[in-house]
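Researcher: Structure for this, please.
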Amino acid sequence: MIRLLILSIFTLFLSSCVLNAKNGQNYYRYGDIKTKLNKRAIFEIAKGELRRLSIENKVPKSWKFTPLLDIQKDRRDSNWVVSFTNLKIKHKKNQTLYIRISEYGVVMGNSYSKIVPTKK
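Model: Predicted structure, token format:
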């Protein structure tokens, strides 16, 4: 009887760990889903996403400390589009990186073109 009780407690513990584990999709999500973030918080999230992309070698290392070019709200869906520029890149069309972030702080995607594809 004691073994059954210990086994069920252990099983509950393991299942709660699995249910609360993050899958990396909402890695830079701050606060609850009902709180809209301000421009400064969106900028910090975009900087963190840019560092993450350079650490994971998805963009060249020279992007890690590039300056902010622009931050504005998209008229179509009220997401933020943060753009960074890196003049060390030779190809002109790849010198600007756009990161799309929802108004709640979820990173939606990134691209070298103005139209950023969103993650599904």
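Researcher: Any notable elements?
Model: The chain has two helices and four strands. Confidence is low (pLDDT under 50) at residues 17-28.
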